[in-house]
Amino acid sequence: MLESVWTVGQQVLILFILAGVGFVLGKAKMIGEQFSRSSSQLVMYVVSPCMMIVAFQRSFEKEGFRNFCMVLLLALVIHLAGIAMAQLLLRNKSEKENALRFSVVHSNCGFMGYPLQTALLGTIGVFYGSAFVTVFTLSAWTYGLVQMSGGKQKVSVKTVLLNPGVLSVVVALALYLCSVTLPEIVLTPVTYLSHLNTPLPMIVVGYQLSQANILAVLRGKDTWLAIFLRLIVTPAIALGLCLLLHVDHTVAVAVVAAAAAPCAALLSIFSARFEQDTALASGLVAAESLMSAATMPVMVGLAVAFC
After folding, report:
1. Would you tell me how many other CB atoms lie within 10 Å of the CB of residue 62?
2. Which terminus of the chain has a lower count of CB atoms within 10 Å, N or C?
């Protein structure tokens, strides 16, 4: 088990070395908020879709598709459990509680999940990870949207379905199910763009760490409870479900890696959009990202060792 934790820890350390580049550049004021926003948009609208297309460029196999559907089911249960915990345990009606509830339910399964899944499992990890991200996207643009807007924003079919996360999965899945292989002249540049998915998001995470007042965020029992639920309880639920259902090893590692990630960077975006406490949101993302360097190797290492 210790060997598994160390193996995962090495991969997480590599990610945080990349984040360290963003941290140094942010402190040196060589990159700024505009870089962070633009890079996040680039990852969301170009890099992640390209990565999914590459991951889905594989022969259709019944077992692989069955595992993909299993990840969808597990992700749904994990998100519903997160919503239940957030609503039951974080009960104060305030801007802060809205952000904390969002953080409990939604992990950074794209920015930090994909790179770790790729490092541990290769493209099959992204293939299964994209199922988790699909459920995350649906949850973020329904429950998350209503939560962060304080109930003012109404959910629509357009916001749920017409967003880059869902659209990219639909396109990539259609190519997979129809056994369409892209020509080399298209697949090669798409593959090059997909390679940005590890360094670019982590540099953005590092920049966010450089700008956040982490100590100011870590005040109050509710904040620590939300962090505990996000980094310990949620991945433990994911691990327990995988053990209970005896799922495939690659499925378990992909699911726990996604569930063990810190809170989603989308929290900062929604916070700014709805004019809520952006300092709290960015600080919470940064604080959990930093703490996850210790928690992710343990939680994912357990999945590697026992699933």
Report:
1. 7
2. N
Mean pLDDT of 194-212: 83
The rounded distance, in Å, linking the Cα atoms of 228 and 124 is 29
Measure the CA–CA gap between 191 and 212, rounded to whole angstroms: 33
Tokens of 247: 């799922």
Q: What is the DSSP string of 12-74?
A: HHHHHHHHHHHHHHHHTTSS-HHHHHHHHHHIIIIIHHHHHHHHT-S---HHHHHHHHHHHHH
What does pTM read for this prediction? 0.86
How many angstroms separate the CA atoms of 214 and 279, rounded? Answer: 9
Q: Which among 177, 199, 22, 38 has a CA at the least distance from the CA of 114? A: 199
pLDDT value at residue 78: 97
List of residues 6+ apart from 216 with CB closer than 8 A: 279, 283
Q: Among 17-21, 51-55, 255-259, name the one with the lowest average pLDDT.
A: 51-55
Taking the alpha carbons of 164, 254, 200, 56 in that order, is the dihedral positive or negative? negative
Nearest CA to 283 among 262, 303, 298, 299? 262
> How confident is the model over 88-117, as pLDDT tens digits?
998 776 668 888 999 999 998 887 888 889
Longest dimension (CA), the chain: 55
State the alpha helices, DSSP H only, in the chain.
2-27, 33-42, 48-55, 62-89, 95-105, 114-121, 123-139, 145-148, 157-161, 164-177, 184-194, 199-211, 214-217, 221-228, 234-245, 249-259, 266-273, 278-306
